[in-house]
Design brief:
The chain is α/β, with parallel strands linked by helices. The protein has two domains: 2-206, P-loop containing nucleotide triphosphate hydrolases (Rossmann fold, 3-Layer(aba) Sandwich), CATH 3.40.50.300; 211-289, no CATH class. It contains eleven helices and nine strands. The protein has helices at 2-13, 24-32, 47-57, 69-81, 95-107, 123-131, 159-166, 180-190, 224-232, 248-255, 264-267, and strands at 37-40, 61-65, 86-89, 112-115, 134-139, 170-175, 203-206, 242-245, 271-274. The chain has a seven-stranded parallel sheet, sandwiched between helices. Strands 8-9 form a two-stranded parallel sheet. Strand 3 (86-89), helix 5 (95-107) and strand 4 (112-115) form a beta-alpha-beta unit. The chain is globular, with a radius of gyration of 20 Å.
């Protein structure tokens, strides 16, 4: 309870929130107890806070693995705004910036280091982290490790080798999309039973989405007639919608068009973005909690 009270104090004084959202308390309590966690939470429900806040309450460095470079940059900027020492180590940084971050990690100056999975496969990165005081490994978009998942990334398979190199390291994983097969795959690859301590088993926390309308996936070419059909699928007052386009320029065109000369994003009805890897991640994300 003392840890939870301290967490609630940090929630208010550092992050500026009055209370935890549903599901966050249980996950944070479990992490602070030293147990491994797999949390399946919907987008916008506050996954990032569930590893950012414990990182401030623990000694050492928290490594956050994420494939979304734009999201990493946004979170690092937000954490620095809170006065938290954080940085993002990835291939889009200037060489000098990455060298500075490496030096900060070596000197123990950071509380959170966001690292792209590709960089964790490099021997020099593994050697750096072995010398650093790493206390927690947080894996975002954990479904990327599963070949059953919709967004498999081979680079995530290197995380098992990193865990072996860093020893008995507490691991927490987060995803918004994972069916039963994908969850089982994540557990077997990130939380292998022979590595887990008997008193600290992996915990799977799953919470239902806080909205009742099922998600819809629609595929079509963006002709003028089909754009009008798209608007009918996103009527006003029905909450947030997202559209993924095959190319970034197609997503940008959709976001500028709503049939009446106003951008879809400004109309509050829909947002659109190109696929990841096509010049950057332009999907809209809401909230850091």
């Amino acid at each position: 309870m003392a840890d939870l009270a301290a967490a609630q104090n940090l929630l208010r004084t550092v992050f500026g929130f009055a209370e935890f959202r549903a599901g966050q308390t249980e996950i944070i309590e479990t992490i602070l107890a030293g147990r491994d966690v797999l949390a399946v939470m919907p987008t916008g429900s506050g996954k990032s806070l569930c590893y950012q806040l414990p990182a401030l309450m623990r000694g050492g460095l928290t490594i956050v693995v994420s494939p979304l470079i734009a999201l990493m940059r946004n979170q690092v900027a937000q954490l620095r705004g809170y006065g938290i020492a954080a940085a993002s180590l990835n291939s889009t940084n200037h060489f000098d910036e990455n060298r500075t971050i490496v030096e900060q990690i070596a000197r123990g100056e950071l509380r959170l280091a966001y690292v792209a999975p590709e960089r964790l496969a490099k021997p020099e990165t593994v050697a750096l982290l072995r010398r650093a005081n790493v206390g927690l490994l947080a894996v975002d978009e954990a479904h990327c490790i599963s070949q059953w998942g919709h967004d498999f990334r081979p680079e995530y398979m290197n995380l098992a080798a990193l865990q072996n190199e860093l020893g008995s390291l507490q691991t927490i994983a987060f995803t918004a999309t994972a069916d039963a097969a994908t969850r089982a795959d994540i557990l077997s690859r990130l939380f292998r039973q022979q590595r887990l301590r008997p008193t600290q088993p992996a915990v799977s926390h799953e919470r239902a989405k806080p909205w009742s309308q099922p998600a819809r996936a629609i595929y079509f070419r963006t002709s003028r007639r089909q754009r009008y059909h798209l608007l009918r699928l996103a009527p006003p007052g029905r909450g947030y919608r997202g559209v993924s386009a095959g190319r970034r320029r197609q997503g940008a065109a959709l976001s500028r068009w709503n049939g009446r000369g106003r951008p879809l994003a400004q109309s509050g009805r829909i947002s659109a973005g190109g696929r990841r890897g096509d010049g950057g991640d332009h999907r809209v994300r809401h909230g850091n909690r």
